[in-house]
Write a structure and sequence with these properties.
With 139 residues, the chain is of the alpha+beta class. It has seven helices and four strands.
């Protein structure tokens, strides 16, 4: 079993896609083991995406991520990290495979509906950023 951190980003929440995103994970055998809605401050968004702090899009990305509420969740399943990213699709929706969340709903490379951790190390950091042990209801 592997855990990963996913976020329905402010554009996904704004488009009423919370249920759709959860459905796509759950129908693929990925279980939700923790979940919360949170409106990140700019500082909190910067902390979450600190690995991207030198990138040219960092300011815009953290403005976007703090522009409205997100739904943050811990997901659990066999190879959850790579499977969640496959369900999400490529960062740029134009390059995403048909049937992925980003292909179906994302409006661009920044406003791309959903986040998923990209490695066991980032999953550990990102899960701990939002949830403590007592809040994770492992199956
Ligand atoms: P995420 O980390 O959100 O799951 P990802 O791993 O597919 O997405 P990253 O390279 O980690 O992509 O980039 C983090 C986020 O930064 C992207 O999801 C997107 O919102 C934004 N982003 C990435 N590249 C660009 C870009 N070239 N221009 C604008 N925004 C970008
Ligand atoms: Mg990433």
């Amino acid at each position: 079993m592997e855990r990963t951190l996913s976020i329905v980003k402010p554009d996904g929440v704004g488009a009423n896609l919370i249920g759709e995103v959860l459905r796509r994970f759950e129908e693929n055998g990925i279980s939700v083991v923790a979940l919360r809605m949170i409106h990140l401050s700019k500082k909190q968004a910067e902390g979450f995406y600190h690995v991207h702090r030198e990138r040219p899009f960092f300011g815009s990305l953290t403005d976007f991520m703090s522009s409205g509420p997100c739904v943050v969740m811990v997901l659990e399943g066999e190879e959850a990290i790579s499977r969640v990213r496959a369900i999400m699709g490529a960062t740029n929706p134009e390059e995403a495979d048909p049937g992925t969340i980003r292909k179906d709903f994302a409006s661009g490379i920044e406003k791309n509906i959903v986040h998923g951790s990209d490695s066991p190390e980032s999953a550990a950091y990102e899960i701990g950023y939002f949830f403590n042990q007592l809040e994770i209801n492992s199956r």
